[in-house]
Amino acid sequence: MKVQLFYFDGCPNHPPALERLKHVLRQEGLPEHVEEINVTSPEQAQALAFLGSPTIKINGMDVEPSARDSQAYAMACRTYRNAGKQDGLPDEEMIRAALREALGQPAVEHDCCAQTVPAVAVKSGKSKSSALVMTGSVFAAILASFCCMLPIVFALTGLSVVGASAAFAAWRPYLLTATFGLLAAGFYFAYRPVKTECAPGSACALPTTKRSGRVVLWLTSAAVVAFALFPYYSGPVAEFLLPDKTAHAAAPALQHASFRIEGMDCAACAVAVEGKLKSVAGVQTARVSFEQKAAEVDYNPAVASPEQFRKAIEGAGYRAVKTNKGA
Question: Domain range holding 254?
Fold first, then answer.
């Protein structure tokens, strides 16, 4: 009887496979002579019909019946289905059945549906958890910056903020904490060491799915940072998106009105309020400062009034207090 064990250097399952094979040979009263063949290249793996390390053949037949027609030759660690679970070694009953088959003896019943899975990563709930974590971090980052996104959205649509941006501003520290906490969890899932049956550097040591998952994680991180930092560059974005509706025609006998504005959280809020003021008929110029929390309006008193400006500011969702005595 010809008993062969195929392997490649570095596969951690080679020694225990040899020990298990010799143990079964002793139990069956057979010589413990095993020919060990070290596979060193993909070309050799193809020539020897090597399905991964370890592969055991009895008289040239693979010990796993369902793998005998497989052509998934690879320089990788091999797994076997034992009792419905993936394992890096064939169980003793599988080896014993192959020996008895070679001897022409009745084989004990074994798992007929077992399949060899060389160099294939078995997906689990971990990838789903990682995806949920990354999605959650992006969503939390967006919510954290809603205080400065909403003024732009509502200014574009003509709706009123009605204090919504202030509510999100109050929650921003907590949402940012959740954002980066979820992102940290994503990096943990992607980079934590995982116990594996694969040899270092083998085809299954780092599955393609895991590499692509890490790429997605880094792209997600970039998106999270961009959303989280939005309040710091919201001003230019708002100026680009919101049109200047100031009437540039000369207006006679202009008057000036000043307001203190309460509730602005970022430069985008100031741009949104400024857009509201410029949309009022009769306004010649309107300037809103986020830093000073103030609005300055030059207007034609025959067409507009400070009361209209106050209503426009409050319509944007902020509180306006007139600070001069203009008409």
Answer: 243-322
